[in-house]
Amino acid sequence: MRHFLAPLAVVLMASPAIAAEGAAAPPPPPPPATGQAAPTPPPPAPPATGQAAPTPPAPPATDQAAPLPPAPPTPQGVLVPRGPSEVLAGEGLGRPMRGPMGGRFPQRRWHDEAPNPLAARDNKPLAGYHGGTFFLRDRFDNFRFYPGFAVHLDSLNYFGKGVSDTELKSTIQARRIRLSFAGEILNTWQFLLQPEFGSTTFDNIDGRAERSAAAAGKTPDRSSGTYSPVQTGNYRSSLADAYVNYGPSHLINVQIGQFLAPFTMENRTGSYTTTFMETALPSRALGNPSNREIGAMAWGALRKNLFYYSAGVFLGDGANRPNADNRADVIMRTYARPLANAAGPIKEAQIGFSFRYGMRDKNRVAYDYNPMTTQSGYTFWRTTYTDSVVDPTSSNTSGRTIHIIPSGAQTGAAAELRIPYDRFDFRTEFVFVRNNTREGVDGFQVTNTERLGTLKGWSYYAQLGYWLWGKPFLTGAPGESGPRKVDFNKPDPGVSPQGMEVVVKWEQLRVNYDGAARGGTPDAKKNFDGDIKVDAFSIGANYWATRHLRMSINYAYYIFPDSTAGGTKDQRALAPGNRLDAKNPGFADAAKNAHALHELSARLGVNF
């Protein structure tokens, strides 16, 4: 008990002194004893005219600072700055805060201070540019919107024996004009919508397209059909990407819609950042010619992409095409970076694998198998041909048009390797496919099957790049196309980096087509069976003025070994000159001896 009474006694003993404070002046102090210092002298006399007045002495310190005057009321809608020690009452749990000398700051409530109309709740901007992305969001950061667009203007030029006599002409085209509407909802959901417009082409390039048709399977003549206007311009629009992604963490994501199929590293690299203007033969000709698929995919990665996975179920019929047979494909891709936690120069080296499998109902699927093209769009292997069967009741004496159609099992596998080292970047991918097919007569593709076949083979590329100057790899790592996000915790460089990259690439394609491998009899005179062989060497240079402005130039040299007019079983891939009329004396040499194609292309790309 005495421990509690002792403080009370001290207070009671001090009360008379406190009460008497200020009532009477205290007695003067006694004179100092001998040997002690003299008392402080009185303040000096006022200075003479023209001299500055001395600084008055500071008031005696007290236990508490003088009380602050009450703060004037804050008008609604006026932004009031806050001092370094001032805290809203709502943030301080309703308790007034103490000043540095013990005094109290004026208590203010949440509604007394108007929000900053230019900042979100986290004191970061509501709109602007950060990390390469334009953004717009609400004050509570529940919704973010990322507008964007892309314009790719390409120059295409072709050279080689007989090329000048074919339909290949130098041109400039809008390869793609794409709008982008992306965003985030509640920091967990992401979405992307990208309509695309392009490219500028001719309709009815050879004058044979019908406006009104003859009987199915017959070529129209003057009495049976009329033709569309020749070489009319055509600018096509389509949907590139349209998906919603649920991503509660970097490890767990579910994506639904139309997007890049998870097969090969290049196919998962956005068209804005591909090293060459188009993807290589393994993905463009074999792996996933349609590029995009409609379906659902689960994906995610460990920290630093030590391990990445993606696997989904897709319709399998390509972009913007609904399901034709009530069947689906399974497609997956995974890769690992085993040195990601190391500090070595190749810590981002990765090795990966892709796989796909699906079925096509021969009684439902009737669209053509994808043709094979060069980077600049020349088709060296078509999926239609003319057989030797002639209808005696028709004026057509050249035979029927036969379509090669995917049918039955479709299987593919791929391997990838990437080793970035300092300013060097080495990449290689290998793709193998075994796809079953069937052949149907033009006009009867749904109801007619002539024979059942198989297309199988492999393709690979090896590519080496070097960044001459600027920031290397400023466009990011390949194969990591995903929802757009903005991380405000990462500092923005302010000035966009620049860079110059040069690259060389070697590609090979070796495929065999056997139209009657699984049933039926091949056409005796004009069957389309045989090998498809292509070699390609390419060099390129990319100048990135920023990550949003690209200027590229590519040269590609395509070789079609043993190609000749009409093709043979040893080579079904044709050079442009091989398509000329071998019976014409002016074209005979090119038709038989043209084995190559030179392509020189350039791109000016702007993308956000």
Textual characterization of the structure:
With 608 residues, this protein is mostly beta strands. The protein has helices at residues 2-20, 281-287, 588-593; strands at 127-130, 133-137, 143-159, 171-185, 189-203, 210-212, 226-227, 232-246, 253-260, 292-301, 307-314, 329-336, 350-360, 372-373, 379-381, 384-386, 401-421, 424-441, 451-470, 499-519, 530-546, 549-559, 596-607. The strands form three sheets. Strands 3-4-5-8-9-10-11-12-13-17-18-19-20-21-22-23 form a 16-stranded antiparallel barrel. Strands 6-7 form a two-stranded antiparallel ribbon. Strands 14-15 form a two-stranded antiparallel sheet. A hairpin with a 2-residue loop joins strand 17 (401-421) and strand 18 (424-441).
Compose a concise summary of this entry.
The chain is mostly beta strands and 608 residues long. Helix content is 5%, strand content 41%.
